[in-house]
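The freezer alarm interrupted the setup, so I double-checked each line after restarting. Inputs confirmed:
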Amino acid sequence: MSIETRPDDAEMTERMSSTLTPSPMNGNGPVDSATAPHTLRINMGPQHPSTHGVLRLELELDGEIVVSCKPIIGYLHTGTEKTMENLTYLQALTVTDRLDYLNPMGNNLAYALAVEALFDCEIPERAIIGRVLLAELTRLNSHLVWLGTTGIDLGASSVLLYTFREREVLLDFFESLSGARMMTSFIRPGGLADDFTDDWLQGVSKFIDDLPARIDEYEALLTHNPLFKDRMVGIGVLDGQRALSMGVTGPVLRASGISHDIRKARPYSGYDQFEFHVPVGSHGDSYDRYLVRIEEMRESVKLCKQAIAKLPVGPVKTSDRKVMPPPREELGQSMEAVIHHFKLWTAGMKPPAGEAYIPVESPRGELGFYVVSDGSNKAVRVRERAPSFANLQALPIMARGGLVADLIAIISSIDPVLGEIDR
Amino acid sequence: MTETLDQALDSLTLADLEHGTSADGIDFVRVPVDAIPRLVDAVIGAGFGRFIDLTAVDEPRRADRFELQYLLHSMQDQRWLRLKARTAEHAPSIVSQFEAANWYEREVFDLYGVLFDGHPGLTRILMPDDWDGHPLRRDVALGGEPVQFSDNIS
Amino acid sequence: MNMAASDGPGHEKDGAHGFLLSKLESWSREKSLWPVTFGLACCAIEMISTSAARFDIARFGSELFRPSPRQADLMIVSGRVSQKMAPVLLEIYNQMPEPKWVIAMGDCASCGGIFNNYAVIQGVDKIVPVDVYIPGCPPRPEALLDGIIKLQERVHEGATRA
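Predicted 3D structure, all chains:
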């Protein structure tokens, strides 16, 4: 594989474009398809500061205008699906963290729900509500990164420092809960890995109470900023019908006017007990996608507050001994407990044969793990339905006719994560 | 199965059409692979107009080893539907009915080797263009390096 | 121009004058290591955290992450390197001018990490020479800073290439 043009050699690009036939971009007169047939084919990425990962785009440019844009993916293909098929179900859970690496607990949740559907086991209420709390904290985390990187892509570099300030506090919470900042593998088939402490819940509660003021700070920097609006309003329009036919989900779909959120459409993990509304845009441009995500952050704050208030007393692991090992105390008293403990920690759990796919609403859209079991301790097939894969397929439609600088704004408003696209 | 879906499936008059429900509560329909375009038209008519996912499950001991799994969604009923079809190598492309299926079919081609007839540009999407083989097939090894643990050295 | 690994560019090393000059070179190189933006996967997010306000990699000299490899002297490979990405990585490495260093950040860049399979290069040292390996999945920002400090110590001793 060779890279045809050096992506960052600005001088060479300028020399090449000045040899094109007349076009308004060269300042030489009106465009006419007969006199300006030449376009410049240029490569963008995979090493690029603004492509949100290793995304390669083959652009065809008429001056600065994007005539066509072809995404080329696969630069982060990790073979996770085949790896997960060669690990036990609990080991495979640790791989799911690393797919959409900005939403690790969301991936854990989607995988855990699919495995639990195969077992059809009962999850205690404290674990169900706790999962909502963790999933929404992870959504906040993901949107904070999105906002920071969108800011820095468009030149508003201080936004990154503000959002990462909040993110560090959230990562401190995840670390004190599970031991790891990012890849926690905390939501497991059968419940949670461990219980919350009251101190931890108090700390999170205080953080959540302070967060709306911080979101106001970010909005004060961006929402009515004329520079930001110039770069985002009317840019990358995707109309609702096209979004539906391209399989687009998540904030991108909602910004195009379609009100569809899996948490309302097919509630999972107790979301039907919560009160929240789903923000929907109307213009389908990058600015609406920004507004939708900011609103989603505020709704996540509400959901976290409700979750902390609703959290009942009780266990966080299922009592189904085929899924979760028994507590230590039982091992001294029951032979069955010892046998279950042994089987689970050596061979691992063995879901009954069947298939399951439980969609969840990740910060990027409809995420689900399609798990096929044949009754043994390793899955026959684990497949991740990644929302960014379909969302990125719609990029050429949004980018056509815009400027190269608009392309950057569009990519950051789609918020793709190459880890889940390439798997 | 909803009534409209039942009617749509009956109108196909396919002798070997199986249906059922999986552990996740999602209905599935299995047809011979050549009938996929007609089945897709029928279920689109029954409201399942959103394409969600396409993948394959490989069972190498079976002659038609790849079972394609299409996942569709109906906005009005808020239901998901799975279509299954078994094939040894070829399958009809449904890009003309669902433009979102484009990259998904390329991925199944890349990782499993299923050839989608009628696809506008069936090329590899995740592996390098000059890669040999189809890695997700069950009879292909995981790859990687052998790891030597010190207690295995004799 | 072929240079010996631990000497500076061609001028005389004899005498106090040459000694001070080479010390000045090492000091200025180690205190201003500018990384090229080479974030691949999850480790890249921790790298961004390291450059944000709490950990602040700029204190250690890496004020700016250069998008162009021509203007960078450090490549922090943060994340898993897939088969398709390997030639790109080598091309970026080749485009960096001497002296240059490589940090393999994280388990995937050091040895393939948890992905011992067909798709991931088992360690970026299979294609480029690596100076410092930082274990972790992902390594904490403090671990990345520790790795950079270790690299600075190496540069201080006069190592001019990985």
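Quick read of the result. Chain B touches chain A at residues 22-26, 49-53, 55, 57-58, 69, 71, 75, 78, 80, 82, 98-100, 102-104, 124-130, 135-136, 142-143 (CB under 8 Å).
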